[in-house]
Amino acid sequence: MENTTLQICTKLDIKPGQLSTFIDKLQSFTATVEATEPLTSTYAWYISDEGNCCYIVERFPNSDAFMEHLNDLSEEMVLLLEMAPIFEVLVFGSPSDDAAEGLRAYGAKFFPLTAGFIR
Question: Which domain range does residue 78 map to?
Fold first, then answer.
């Protein structure tokens, strides 16, 4: 059986002077995702000690769950990306064609599972 899990790691570069507002917004996003997306199994934000870089780590059981997430947050993400533009998006797994298209819009690089397992 093929593993359908998608793991996404996104690096954002936080603009100077935007850290406090950025943190407020990401806490709001996180609360929304936690309350409305039961299939999103990981949605974690990590900010560097310098406050100029953020990594978002996300995990979804399948491409459908990712597409729900993408559709739910697409308008709100515009505000976030004004404060912290995307530097890089790494996708671990094999997304559906629709999910891959959505991710390519953000410049994603894809890494299909070659060996190993995900429980």
Answer: 6-111
The label of the residue with tokens 């978002």 reads 56
Per-residue pLDDT of 25-49, as tens digits, reads 989 888 989 999 999 999 999 999 9
Write down the mean pLDDT value for the chain: 93
* Residue 5, both tokens: 């899990």
Q: Please state the domain count of the chain.
A: 1
Give buried/exposed letters for 42-72 (b at 16+ CB in 10 A, else e): ebebebeeeeeebbbebbbebbebbbbbbeb
Task: Give a yes or no: residue 117 inside a domain.
Answer: no
Residue 116 lies in a domain: no
pTM of the shown model: 0.92
In a domain, 45, yes or no: yes
